[in-house]
Design brief:
There is one protein chain. With about 120 residues, the chain is mainly α. The chain has three helices and no strands. The N and C termini lie far apart (about 80 Å). The chain is about 75% helix and about 0% strand.
């Protein structure tokens, strides 16, 4: 049982059914990932506001390094390429820092007295 790469051949109905089942599972996982990322970013937004109120820097390189190492270990244990996991986390960290910088700028602008 094979699937034609050209799309012009007939596909065994059992293969098509299995492919559909697997794709449905992938779609469900993708939805869960998006929802988990949304929850993560809600929490990091709160961190950004807390940092801004207390004039803490947007980035925390020591925490980021610990998180990267932690995620690499989790990835290894899950049989996921740790380099991929690190790239993924670095992408997220960069976005979080960008958000924290924007929150800090907005906080400073909101507290700046208006000139008469």
């Amino acid at each position: 049982m094979t699937i034609s790469n050209t799309g012009s051949g007939a596909v065994d109905p059992a293969v098509r059914e299995e492919l559909g089942r697997l794709r449905d599972s992938i779609d469900n996982i993708d939805a869960a990932v998006v929802h988990m990322l949304a929850e993560r970013f809600k929490a990091t937004q709160q961190v950004g506001h807390l940092k801004a109120r207390h004039q803490l820097p947007p980035a925390d390189p020591a925490r980021e390094a610990r998180q990267i190492e932690r995620l690499r270990t989790l990835a290894e244990n899950a049989k996921l390429d740790p380099a991929f996991a690190e790239k993924f986390l670095n992408f997220i960290i960069a976005e979080v820092i960008r958000h924290h910088e924007r929150i800090a700028e907005d906080t400073v602008n909101d507290e700046t007295p208006l000139a008469d």
